[in-house]
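Standup, Tuesday
Yesterday: got the pipeline producing structure tokens again.
Today: sanity-check two examples.
Blockers: none.

Example 1:
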Amino acid sequence: MPRSRFLGEPDNRYNLWEGSVGYRLNHQFSDRWSLRNRFIASFSTFEDRSVGANGGLEALEADNRTVLRFANNNKADNESYILQTDVNGEFQSGIINHDLLLGVELQRNVYTRRFVNADAPPIDLFEPEYGNFSIPDESERNYEVSTTDIIGIYAQDLLAIGEQVKVLLGGRFDWYSDNFEDRIEDFSENTEVNAFSPRIGLVYQPIEPVSLYASWSRSFVPQFGADLAGDRFEPTRGEQFEVGVKTEFLDNRLTATLYQFTL
């Protein structure tokens, strides 16, 4: 079989368009306090009209030349909006220096998917004949819309205690709402999840070129859209613990790190 063998149809087509626009605003209130605000809007459109082999080796029949195929006609539009504002400030309380960060993040994601999947006639691997099948029409598509809203509030304080100890305390709380609509079946479903993601870190410098550190954190990342069965993707959650030692030599031109982490 030649490497150029094509198992689709001449009218296979794949298009992707992406664009974004946004701004970033920084304002310095004083030497110690500042404000940052940013906004970004992203847009994408994906089209896939294609016929292809139905899987891997399982698509090849027992005669070792007949290939089972499938067809799809998919179009997806995605709109994403993110607005983030945070305040950063430095101050001192007794022997402790604080580097404080406070912020809020708003997100909206609208994912629209129109698709139809169908079986296509098989093709001969060694003597293919094309043009005997038309990809399903757009009017036969399923029509699904997912709208996701996220509100995140976060805070972080980096404490420097003397010259040898630094402590990081932080956390983020997310309110997550996902509304799914099947506009062909006239079905809708709403999912709401709240999550707190803490973050703790400690650095101790017994001598200037050596730092002993440990950190622990949890994460929460919403997932947009659904699988081919229409089931909503679950948010991704994670937890990480890390401990290690870092050294610096030759005026910071050479560094070495030994660490152990668990995900």
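Example 2:
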Amino acid sequence: MPTQPRPLRRIWPLSLLLLLLTAFTGPTAPPKKLRLYLIGDSTIAQKVRQTFPETGWGMPLSTFFDTTVVVDNRAQNGRSTRTFLAENRWQPIVDALQPGDYVLIQFGHNDESEAHPDRYTPPADFRRNLLKFVQETRAKNAYPVLITPVTRRKFKDGRQQETHAPYSAATAEVARAQQVPLIDLDRMSRELLQQFGEENSKLLFLQLAPGDHPNYPYGRNDNTHFSELGARKMAQLVVGEIKAQQLPGLSGHLARPLPKNAVPPAAPGQDAQPTTP
């Protein structure tokens, strides 16, 4: 009696098997984004084209982190702790905070300005306002970081002077009392200016001769606000402290430098050129 032929076994294409496997396992969830809020004044804030090359140190900050960190710069020109609160700029941040987020807090330039009563904040009130920022950030299981006000350029006999003493001291006092990480940007920025020297430190600030830039046809002699170089240097100081202090959940997301012999990405419309070792 003749034997019946055995039925052919179906062979599934590999691509179809992978498709079925994906359907059962589901898409991989994207990594959770960590928001890094910045609150403060014009030394940090985003700038508009009409004020370029003025640059706040918060503007280049995102380039120092990987793509899981979102820098949300809420700093505003001319604001003190008092006016930042009075204008309801703080509460929307509190409402949006998620566990693990960070708030970097740097005020002082406008708080100390007694010549401008619309923004001046006495040191005692300044401390209370910083305390409010810290406590309400922690209430949302987020991390506050206090930053002393970045220095103004002010040399005397070749030495960079301290320009924010009472308000830097008040910031450090709140940090100690509340056991909050402190970035002493006042001290570090003074040391940086001293390294550059009285003349070369002008490169860090909005110092322009007449005709240097169309936004400032008559020039600019500004020892408070930064050039692009100055903003990047100040951001580097902040990032260096984030790394040195091993801030949890944040220091591990710093952007990693390219390997020594890596080929940099080509500009649009250009071919990448190999790097010579």
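Quick observation on example 2: The radius of gyration is 26 Å. The chain is about 30% helix and 15% strand.
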